[in-house]
């Protein structure tokens, strides 16, 4: 039997996160006298209530979990679920235009999301479940993050499992009724205040047939988020010094020494990097989210309960972004000397010092008609896309409690239907300045630019002081733009998971083993994807490019407030784009107008074709059986559980292969089985000290896209075949946790923990080459014993018998890597308030603090990045190597993306006299990412992910209870408008891109009935 609960534990257990009472089973009294003993119970409400309630639940669990509870109906500590999770130790998030969208638990994006214990499915090809921006925090009553799984925990995560809880009606002690109305304003958006409405109603009734309860909660929200993301590429801009013997090789392999005097008049006594590309992106997203959650519960007696949950969401994420580009800049690179230089130290990779080089930091880029008669060029892009997702999660089941046996069973169904329409357009500006005459060979025309990259800012614009410069009126004249290209897509993705599970617990009296859990789960998971896209144009000549006058009704002025965030004067303003509202609301009409302009203009005709290709679609179906058994034990101060979970999965991947124009349906199958041992130990070594140990195994299934076996066999003997791998097995994850928690005061804790995760069977890209035989030919197939894949459509030429058809060719696919990686770290947290000092401090006793810190590291793995061609040129020039035959590539361990070694959260709050205020500062260390402004590729970042610098963000909220029913509130996100800075190769090396983010203010009122 457990030890008697201390006063602090009783106080914590008495707290409530919402205003309904949680049903907590009282501990069996050891003696009648002890049962009558008077115990002081501390009643708490509001913010402290949620913290103490979560703390109580965490303390009582047999495994390592983190809990966040709402302070009131629909009032989690943040508006966005990803930002809610950021409050948890060991959790970091990534943002899109300032909105939390990605969650890393202990450095991993590979996590599992559930609602009330039921699986959810995502909107794409991933495995983590529902997108956090698709579900409003307003309908969630609490969040549980499982870091150390039990045998009964469903498999499938690396970092942890996030379980989102909704309100349970039979736990209500009074009628629940609430309404919340808010408005949100962003500092950078132009559409004004966006509305948010949420509400809930619930009650339960005693009927002759039993107790019945019902809860419904819903929310509707519109949100707009904007960030400015300037990007400057200096990757392909190497100008070798005038004394360098730059040696390249012709098609015959003979060395050719380039004449520096004629090829690079801008060459200096030192190597330098000029400007390759300028890109000004205004990233704008509009969200419209509708959520509905309802639960019915019926308990015919004290031993039986039935329930039905339904969560329905509709998310429309609309993108209306613009890009203004200076392209063709490199055409005058060797003739343009910057006004100022900076020294860039690239740091080191894998212990290799990369050295330093000079780079352009301030100057102008002027057209030079004698070198290139139509560059640099100004382009205007409108990126108009959307993700429209409808998601449903249904859960039906029941529970029965006998004398020694508890049984629960449920059916659950989760589905997600997504459409991703987009209509992206690119216009070329035609400079009418008399000094830039058209010759008709291209649809470019020379525009001068000015840039200033000093002071940690990427600022650039049109050089209006140049004689080549257009006027503002020129820039806004439809006659001065031509259509370059249109990208249109209508792709769809359908995901679903249907599951049945039964869980049982057999209770054992007077034994160290207090109970045994056992159960079975069966699920069918499906993924159905169709990729539909097409491009109109990509016109390179004026003769093929329709003039803007032919589609002037579609043109509007682009956003002109790029400098609002940081006050910059130098920016690209005054330009025309295809109206994003028209492109979104009437894409067919916009396409029809543009295609009519093509017909009217003449030249090359190109029209949209949204018929999916034969290899555009694929389907995945998985069937999984899982059984588990778990013994729960307790002896003196030790408690915990030990068990096994066994899973068996069958996979079928259905797709098409195309050979010489013939479509051949294919079906590939795979299967795997794993036994996953799991152990959790808890030692209550003192009334207020808890030690925990967790050890266990889990798996991470491959993303659906990696299982796609659609393949098109071409006729080119040198082209590799890309194909998914239906036989790809899951990654294996072994986790170890050790932690200590000291509940040193009322509603207070200090904790420290160590975690270690080893991952093997990693998913890696693999290029398998077909061997060249002694006769100089590749294997004719079809077995391809020396590697590669048999391509029956190849027409051999130089590396095969031209009198035959079919050949072994290179194949690119995903494989499991035997290398092991390790993620380990230390997590620390503290929670404390001054409420026990009310007599001494008075009003100041309302203060409290919640803080956490995580330090982690990553090692191992065999995958690596290799410098792109442009990066190789630069790194070798730094070392005085200018002969391409002597070039050495630079490599770097691949590691983990979005992984910060250090992160912390500090929240200071005040709650007293009806006033509740909170100030939270979040900081995370630098991390590597492939998410850069305007989607820069690895090629344009020297072959390596960019590094997002250290960043902190300050959020604040304040609310006041006007009376017991009405509450007024104000919240601010990114109060100090902290920006994002990204460097190429290493933090603080070459500045590549910026993210200038907004401040969001939410205000409103809530009323309880």
Structure explained in plain terms:
7% of the residues lie in helices and 50% in strands. β23 (449-452) and β24 (459-462) form a beta hairpin. The chain contains ten helices and 54 strands. With 1009 residues, the chain is mainly β. The protein starts with 6 loop residues before the first helix and ends with a strand. The longest helix is centred in the N-terminal third of the chain and has 15 residues, at 46-60.
Which features does this protein show?
single chain, 1009 residues, mainly beta, 22-stranded antiparallel barrel, six-stranded mixed β-sheet, 10 helices, 7% helix, globular
* Major beta-sheet overview: 22 strands, antiparallel, barrel
**Helical proportion?**
under 10%
- Strand % is over 45%
What distance separates the N and C termini?
43 Å
Mean pLDDT, to the nearest integer, reads 89
What is the tally of helical segments? 10
- Class from helix and strand fractions: mainly beta
Unreliable stretches (pLDDT < 50, length at least 5) are: 1-44
Seen as an oligomer or otherwise, the chain set is single chain
CA radius of gyration: 31 Å
- The overall strand count is 54
